[in-house]
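Course assignment 3, question 2. Fill in each field.
Student: A.L.
Task: Predict the tertiary structure for the chain below.
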Amino acid sequence: MSAKWYLGTGAQNDVVISTSIHLARNIKQFPFPASLSMQDKLKVNSVIKNATDGLNDYSFNYYEMKTLSQAEVVSLAERHLVSPEFASSRDGRALLLTDDEAVSVMLNEEDHIRLQVMYAGFALDEAYRTADKIDTQLSDKLQFAFDDRLGYLTQDPTALGTGMKASVVLHLPALVSSSQITKLITTVSKLGLSLRGSYGEGAAAKGDMFRLSNTITLGISEKAAIENLKSIALQIAAQERVAREEIFKAPVTEDRIFRAYGVLKYARMIDTSEFMELISLVRLGAVKGIINMDCAQIEALMIHMQPATISLSVDRPLDRIERDKLRAQLVRQSLN
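Answer field:
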């Protein structure tokens, strides 16, 4: 079994947590999923599965969503392998997933195919090359719905054209702490990008984790969209580093970090929101070199301490109190 992509770190990991490329594609001979009968959804799943079986360099595990438990499905969403919308309804849907979870393909979400490639750190070019390679191989086997004027046809008109969404997840605690994040969200929206919480929305994003994504897919090439995203992501990362230097001039910042570390190390109960708030501070301290923790360990904790994923670790349903106790126990073990 390959190591999961999120158990490692990548380029510019002081600010950039991960990179993802999503491609939306539809098979020409079938209506969009919203108009498919259950029988035809299952047929679409079969056609796509057969097409992926012979891909060069990529081997997928295939899951019918209806065969998975609710906790398993929610955990997939917590690990960002499927969308919350995909997890909300399992009938007629399936997932293709590589062992390292770097490549996933949602079948019959909003479109027949939602291909996602995720890598640690800042890796837009690498993720795009992988997505493009798989997309090219699939297009040789499947006839995608394409219009010479509009590009790839998608159920959502705002995805017409490239059908591509590129994203980077950024850790922005200093921009949040210095109250610059709301203005930044407004600014990037004028540049054809969106900045929203990776866990939660807007300036109240849990763990100070934000997803920067392109919003324009029509009238622009995939490579141009990626270059624009890359440029803005680097500018935001630079702003975050400057803001970090500023907030560390105040002694209260270091105090908050060590208090957060102390709570995580000794707490007997901790809920998801508090965990994300505290681990964000600890990560800032780790990057600064004042907390002796590896960022890869912190990223893994962020994934593994989510509610459904915790329940899966003990293979039984947990109520909220049991879950908060287990989360505190697992975090303590990780820090000691």
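Instructor remarks: The two ends are 27 Å apart (CA to CA). The chain has a mean pLDDT of 94.
Grade: pending
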